[in-house]
Structures are given as structure tokens and as C-alpha cells.
Write a structure and sequence with these properties.
Layout (H helix, E strand, L loop, with lengths): L5 E5 L2 E3 L7 E4 L2 E4 L7 E3 L1 H16 L4 E8 L1 H11 L6 E6 L8 H13 L9 E6 L10 H8 L5 E10 L5 E6 L5 E6 L4 E5 L11 H16 L2 E2 L29 H13 L1
Parallel strand pairs: 1-6, 1-8, 6-7, 7-13, 8-12, 9-12
Antiparallel strand pairs: 2-5, 3-4, 9-10, 10-11
Helix pairs in contact: 2-5, 3-4
């Protein structure tokens, strides 16, 4: 390949899943109790996308990775301290809400407009990565809408493997039902890849890489532009954490048909 890739990864913060989340009605709509105090982590699906992008860039000469992240600036700074030692990237930050009560369309618009302004980005070499879902705002459509706004028609969802071929094409494995994969071959960039879990583990910390990244991350956070993202026009009547419910009954020698019939009746109720 004569030219490398320009990889843009969309990923932001989510509350640490080990924390107890309590929804409340705030002054500007639904929110999480003490949201700014909750420990935050990189969205798990976006993490897979970032690590896959960094690995691909390291294996492909003349490639570069940008991480476009929308979230509160103070929380992003905390997050960058944990992921900077794991992958080489240049941060492009947007200062805005990152909770679960935001509209995917507005999020996609902010991300797409931000990507268009990245200096030196060659959209003919663009691989747009992100998660196929989100642990906070799981509409499952954000990456598709970002791709549409960037006029990228080749979009692949629930990706587990992306492999450049010697002839310049890109081979992609997408998850489908029954634990199988759909195998696609794309002529080349630009394309959108919304990642599931990928094939790579979380990279170990590299202190030298972390210091190198932080030299560009701090100025990027200081220059973060405000992004107006919410759910304007949407009214939430009630928000609550799903209640745990467990009714166990032990029955011996029940047939499959009887169990299926009982499950269907329970669902209908």
C-alpha cells in the first residue's frame, strides 16, 4: 500500500459500571445523581475501536489515529490519564454532556462537524471507527449517522475483524445471528466500522507512550469547543433503574413445549 490510513475513532466516557447509578430529574431534565462525582471509564465498545485502530496504524506505515471525544472537559481529562499510556493517538475534544439522556442525532451532528475540521485529515484515506453500541447512550445508530453526514456509504456494523489486503481492499468480519460472521470485502477507504469486541486485548500501560500522548492531550482539552448536545423537544415522564425481580420455581420432568408455553404466557402478562 502506497499510503497509510487516517483513522478517526469516536469514543467518550461512561460511568464506571461498578458504580450504583440513580436517575434523577435535574434542572435541565433527567440526569444521574452526583454524575460529575462518579468515576468514569472509556466506553467499552469505543475502547475496542481505539485499540484496533492503534494496532492497525502501527502495522501500516504513514498512518495516524485521532480520538474524537465528546464529554465534560474535566471528566475527559481524568479519562485521558488512564488511556494515554495504552495507545498512540491525537485527541480532538468537544466539551459537552456525555450522559444517557442525549439525542443520538445531535451527538452525531456534533461529531461529524468536528471531524470535518481536523487539520490534515485526508478523507480519501479515512477509516471511521467507533462502537456498535454505547454503555450510556445506546441508540445503536450514532456511527451510521456520523458516516452519513460525512457522505460515507460503506458502513459495517458489529465488526470483529478488519484486515487490509495486499491488493488494497479491506476484508471485514461482521457479527450476525447464530454466532456466525458475514464476510465483506471493501474496495478501500473511506468506510465506517462500528466495532463489537474485536480480536485484541486491552494493551498494557506504556509510561513513555503516555507522556508522549499527554503533551498533545492537554492543549487539545484546553481548546475543546463547546458542543450543545441534549434532547431538545423530548420530554421524559419518568426515569428509574430497572427493578430486580426473580421468581424461581423448580419443576421436574417438564417438556420443552410446556416450558415454551409458560414463557410465552409470562411475557404476554
Amino acid at each position: 500500500m502506497s499510503q497509510g490510513f487516517h483513522l478517526v475513532v469516536c469514543g467518550s466516557i461512561v460511568p464506571d459500571p461498578l458504580q450504583t447509578l440513580e436517575p434523577i430529574q435535574g434542572a435541565e431534565g433527567p440526569a444521574l445523581k452526583n454524575e460529575m462525582m462518579l468515576p468514569a471509564v472509556l466506553d467499552p465498545w469505543a475502547g475496542h475501536a481505539l485499540y484496533e485502530a492503534a494496532h492497525l496504524a502501527a502495522a501500516t506505515p504513514d498512518s495516524k489515529v485521532w480520538l474524537v471525544s465528546l464529554g465534560p472537559r474535566a471528566k475527559l481529562q481524568q479519562l485521558m490519564m488512564t488511556i494515554a499510556p495504552k495507545a498512540a493517538f491525537e485527541l480532538v475534544a468537544l466539551d459537552g454532556p456525555a450522559g444517557g439522556f442525549t439525542e443520538a442525532w445531535e451527538t452525531a451532528e456534533a461529531l461529524a462537524e468536528c471531524i470535518k475540521t481536523i487539520p490534515g485529515l485526508d478523507r480519501s484515506r479515512l477509516l471511521l471507527f467507533g462502537g456498535c453500541a454505547s454503555a450510556s447512550r445506546d441508540a445503536g445508530v450514532t456511527m451510521q449517522m456520523v458516516g452519513e453526514r460525512l457522505e460515507i456509504s460503506d458502513q459495517f456494523l458489529a465488526v470483529d475483524e478488519l484486515t487490509p489486503q495486499e491488493n488494497g481492499t479491506i476484508r471485514i468480519l461482521e457479527r450476525i445471528e447464530a454466532g456466525r460472521y458475514q464476510v465483506s470485502e471493501c474496495a478501500g477507504p473511506p468506510l465506517v466500522a462500528a466495532w463489537a469486541t474485536g480480536r485484541l486485548p486491552e494493551p498494557p500501560n506504556n509510561a513513555q507512550l503516555g507522556m508522549q500522548n499527554m503533551r498533545s492531550i492537554m492543549p487539545a482539552l484546553q481548546k475543546a469547543q463547546p458542543a450543545r448536545v441534549g434532547a431538545e423537544g423530548v420530554e421524559f415522564l419518568e426515569v428509574e433503574v430497572p427493578k430486580q425481580r426473580r421468581n424461581t420455581r423448580v419443576v421436574e420432568d417438564a417438556s420443552v413445549d410446556e416450558m415454551a408455553r409458560e414463557i410465552v404466557e409470562w411475557i404476554r402478562k
